[in-house]
Amino acid sequence: MISAELDKRYGVREVLRKAQIAVKPGSVHALVGENGAGKSTLVKILAGVIKGDGGTLRVDGSERSVASWNRAAARAAGIGIVQQHGAFAGTLSVVENAVLGVEPRRGPVLELGDTAAKLAELGRRIGLPIDPLARTDELSLGAAQRAEIVAALHHGAKLLMLDEPTAVLAPVEVEGLLKTLRTLASEGTTIVIVTHKLDEVRAVADEVTVLRAGETVATFASARDVGAIARAMVGGNVPTAAQAPRLRDDAAPCLALERVGVGGALHDIELSVRAGELVGIAGVDGNGQRELALAIAGLVPHGGRVRIGEHDVSRASARARLACGLAHIPEDRHHGGLVLDATVADNIVLGRTDVTGRFRIDRGRVAKFAGTQVERLDIRPPEPSAIVRALSGGNQQKVVIARELSRPALKAVIASQPTRGVDLGAVARIHEQLVQVAKAGAGVLVISADLDELLALCHRIVVLLRGRTVGERTAGADGWDEQARAALGAMMTGAQAA
Amino acid sequence: MNRHWEVLFDFARRPSSGTKREVQAALIALLLSLAFGSALMLVVGKSPATVWWAMLSRTATTPYVLGQVLYKATALVLTGLAVSVALDAGLFNIGGEAQLTAGVLACSVVGAALPASTPAIVALPICVLAAAAGGAAIGAAIGILRVTRQAHEVITSIMLNAIVAGMTLWIGNTVLFQGGTTRGPAIAPGAELSLLGLGGSPANAAVLLALAIVIVVWWLRARTTWGQAWLAVGRDVDAARSVGISVGRIQILVMTASGALAGLAATSFVLGHKHAFEEGLGRGMGFLGIAAALLGRAHPIGVGIASLVLAFLSTGGLAVSDLIPKELTEMLQGIVVLAIATAAPWVERNSEGAPA
Fold this sequence. Notes:
Radius of gyration of chain B: 20 Å
Distance between the termini of chain B: 33 Å
Number of helices of chain B: 15
Strand order of the largest sheet of chain B: 1-2
Oligomer: heterodimer
CATH topology of chain B: ABC transporter involved in vitamin B12 uptake, BtuC
Strand order of the largest sheet of chain A: 6-9-10-3-11-12
Largest interface: A-B, 47 and 30 residues
CATH topology of the largest domain in chain A: Rossmann fold
CATH architecture of chain B: Orthogonal Bundle
Number of strands of chain B: 2
């Protein structure tokens, strides 16, 4: 169907180096690799969204020029793409977006009714129900993604590329999507799915290509041996999950919320995290997690009471809360976590007057502190003067972790999506850090859309749905069982209240 | 409207990562403007080589012209720093005109109110502070409106430029102007800054003040938590807020400081040259400061160099007025700004990695 060997560089950074991929017609092909391995870049070049710098490209058996391959050519060849962050313009409806650039007309007038009906019908048939008339910025991330898939198929895509499609979905939605992909493949559509989640690869893929640091390091003719795939991804042994420390029965609460509410997004949250405890907040994105973190950090006005250790900080500023022993790992390192154009060292000491000094910056101390943190978290490149923007997602996240978890006298930690878009090696390192601060006596609140992450990390998991806590489960003496997992998954989608 | 301005001035706000890239951008801009300037000279039928050489050699060898360049650069570096400090914090201060005028007014009124016998050691600091305070008041007003009322600083500063110009003229007409002139009462002799004695040019000791301020701003920006806080606010408001930096307070402080810097340019005009309030004193310098800040890539040292370059372009143009029309040299300054606007994104596109 399509095969290529591609090069791509951004400035001095080589993102793809003779990266090879060969996709058979009618198969589901998984493109896996850690973050920053070049997966997104590769599919974007194949779909003509960005230009490759060199290499070879064969589509349907004929040689195509990499230099002149663009979106129009790819579309004509039947290649559709659903990008990671969505490509739909927010203020338009689904059908308007779907016809953007290829508007059907009746005379001079735009004709959308037919297309809308066709889209709805197509969605129903393949098990991805959509509302073609909804405005895309009012759709959930999952619904918007379904709409993009349907739109791509509507345009006659024979080869559909999906870039990390499951990152924004609840477990049930993931299952549904994977099933649909299998159905589409059996009807003859070729699928390329970019992911770094191996259980999805096992569930759906016929063939696997593994990218590491811009090179194809392995291909697999089946997805059975996930262990081998994982080893190929990280180039060594897969790091093991961190273990939550044993919880002391008499541990005092470090973080307590009473009837905390934020506008229409969060209501009456009652929650208490004890010293040494790791509490997970599970839920599909957009159910009030963001507001919960911001309320605790003092970054949005909120009702109710927030206590950090002995201090009632309900009306305190963000700075005062940090001074009371709070650390906050924001959900999006690109918006709120990091100053991307500053150096690693500057980001590690950002706002940390305990390191820099109150007014004049003690540069010797900053350099030493940053050096220690870079080493401790294995930030790569191990260069405190590197600009953060040039780092991979995982290393950027480590910079946030380095700053927040090295605060003195930590009492409470809120970690929002601490490993989102982070590679396996960094995930292990970040989990280890969270466990370590809990062992040192802080109460840790982990907010994650990834239930498996919470199960690997937490003593207790609370589910947030439509801004309310709808239930919780506590790990048994020997960890989590399948029953608890199922119950939590059900609560996340509102299928079961507990 | 908001969005519009942000797109328009995005190139200026782009953070300064990598000194090499910054220097590259400024150099490309300069070369572009030289090329444009040369083309214009060809259009008016003059050999560019002759004109550029005459500009350089006459400036270097004529003390008066050199003095004029310094005099102009003194004011320019201060109004330029005013713009660049605000840009650092993500704010676009185009109220330099109002702030400078308020500085001129405050400085000359306070200077004239001092008893004639006031010694320099008292009179000078008071008048310098008055100039800074005049500008700071306007800057603070813009900052406070921005933070508390969400009024965009570009709009408020444009409006304040008009308001302050009108107010100053009215105050001049009603109380300051002496017997039919547009000149106010003279300041106390103790407050006068001495001339540098460059061929009778108005270049004066304020250039030392400007130099000191460049160093102070550089130090604050690079070596203190204040500087880091204001840069953090400019580069990522959310990140600044999440590490506990009070964004609103920083924005007000920076606009106040920015106004004070523009106000300080008044010292060169009032204390160093005219020794009295005069209608229109320093006019245009506030706006030209935007060019200095952009060409200097919002770095204190860069702004210093850019001020010298711009002062040279405008004053050197006078020195060759027998060769080319004056309007042509005025166009050159505009071309420099256009060139920097085009060069900066070009340099960034060619050196910056995009996320994979």
